[in-house]
Design goal:
Blueprint (H helix, E strand, L loop, with lengths): L8 H42 L14 E11 L2 E10 L3 E2 L12 H12 L4 H12 L5 H8 L3 H9 L6 E15 L2 E14 L4 E9 L4 H13 L9 E4 L3 H9 L4 E4 L1 H11 L5 H12 L4 H15 L4 H14 L10 H4 L6 H11 L8 H16 L15
Parallel strand pairs: 4-7, 7-8
Antiparallel strand pairs: 1-2, 2-3, 4-5, 5-6
């Protein structure tokens, strides 16, 4: 039986060096060949325009040659140094190059896609430099990212099919640089799930706060775009102004308040020494096995804490109907429907992308970043579903 010699670290380095050398030579030769081809194409175009080749004398010639000039052009093979032929009247760019174009279309597409996939402007520049040898400045990347504005407008205007069963509503606060200093803006977000478990982030709206008017504006926009709510079963929110907006736009749809937000409110309302006692008793309400058990757990909670925290218990009692709506749905969905955590993944990505920025330069950059995040998160979901929404109860 033959024994196979172990692959040493030295051999691995040798293979890597050979691979890098091969591809390096190949790309170098391709770059040189492409430079020569495009330069010769420029000369050919000039000769056709003039009507004769170099050193030929014809009576019907249509102009005078005026030498060459050099310009850099960034391609997938790196930065090409092109020799562009010209006459006294014009220059002749080879191929599909346009005036003032410095980068190939695929390089610009790479920059845009890198931005859409979550890289910062500085990281985009580094990534492009690895492939092309050209360092893209943050200013250049920002200029190219502004080309996303028409995609943002298309996203806001896209028609929606009235096929969504569950909507999750929440907001995230962002800082924007204004003339009067840094100010906070609220980004309201809507996340939808169909009955078959397919999901998508449907809409976002920049506003001054989570007011009823702001939420109504966002929900009415969904309605105008086609989501009339005929198949809508439940809307999950953090409470507050969102509830009143739902009653205005989708009055017949059931509403669920988020238990994560409610637990946070309860913790803020009690003294620190009571946290370890209050929290598990409150959790028993939404962890109950049925609606009747949840109501019984609330009565025990009320009995224990009514005297110490009357205002907190009174608010919980007032919100209890919307907090227990999820019990009307199949048991396997309870954990998904009792909170707005489904939308939190988006906010985690928003914070990750915006943390290095400190604050946005303008509100348009806010929309571009949010659209980029939506695009990056929605794209992998096109062929994936949440199984929990399709399994039998």
């Amino acid at each position: 039986m033959k024994t196979v010699a172990p692959i040493t670290e030295q051999f691995q380095h040798l293979v890597r060096d050979l691979r890098e050398s091969f591809w390096g030579d190949l790309y170098g030769q391709a770059r040189g060949t492409l430079e020569k081809f495009l330069s010769r194409e420029s000369v050919r175009l000039r000769d056709e325009a003039v009507g004769c080749e170099r050193f030929q004398q014809k009576e019907e010639r249509r102009g005078q040659r005026n030498g060459f000039y050099f310009r850099d052009f960034v391609s997938r093979f790196g930065t090409l140094r092109l020799q562009v032929a010209r006459t006294r009247e014009r220059s002749f760019l080879p191929g599909k190059l346009e005036r003032f174009q410095r980068r190939a279309e695929e390089v610009m597409l790479l920059i845009r896609e890198a931005f859409l996939r979550g890289l910062s402007t500085r990281q985009v520049g580094r990534a492009v430099a690895i492939l092309t040898g050209e360092v893209v400045s943050a200013q250049t990347d920002s200029k190219l990212s502004r080309s996303l504005d028409h995609l943002v407008r298309a996203f806001h205007q896209a028609r929606l099919k009235d096929e969504w069963a569950y909507l999750f509503l929440d907001g995230v606060s962002l800082r924007v640089r204004r003339s009067g200093g840094r100010k906070r803006v609220q980004m309201l977000v809507v996340y939808g799930v169909r009955v078959d478990g397919s999901r998508r982030r449907l809409a976002f709206l920049r506003s001054q706060g989570e007011s009823q008017a702001a939420w109504e504006s966002l929900l009415e926009d969904l309605y105008r775009r086609g989501l009339e709510g005929k198949n809508l079963l439940l809307i999950v929110t953090d409470g507050g102004a969102g509830l009143a907006a739902i009653q205005t736009v989708y009055p017949r749809v059931l509403h669920q308040r988020c238990w994560v937000h409610k637990m946070r409110n309860i913790s803020e309302a009690v003294r620190r020494r009571d946290h370890d006692l209050v929290k598990p008793q409150a959790q028993k309400i939404y962890r109950a096995g049925s609606l009747a058990e949840a109501e019984q757990a609330f009565r025990r909670f009320q009995w224990n804490w009514q005297r110490a925290y009357p205002a907190m218990v009174r608010r919980l009692e007032r919100d209890l109907p919307e907090l227990l709506t999820f019990f009307r749905f199949p048991r396997h969905l309870w954990r998904k429907l009792r909170t707005s955590n489904a939308i939190e993944r988006c906010f985690v990505e928003v914070r990750r992308r915006t943390r290095p920025l400190v604050c946005f330069v303008n509100v348009e950059s806010v929309d571009r970043i949010i659209y980029a995040i939506f695009n990056a998160l929605n794209d992998p979901w096109r062929n994936r579903t949440l199984r929990i929404f399709t399994q039998a109860a």
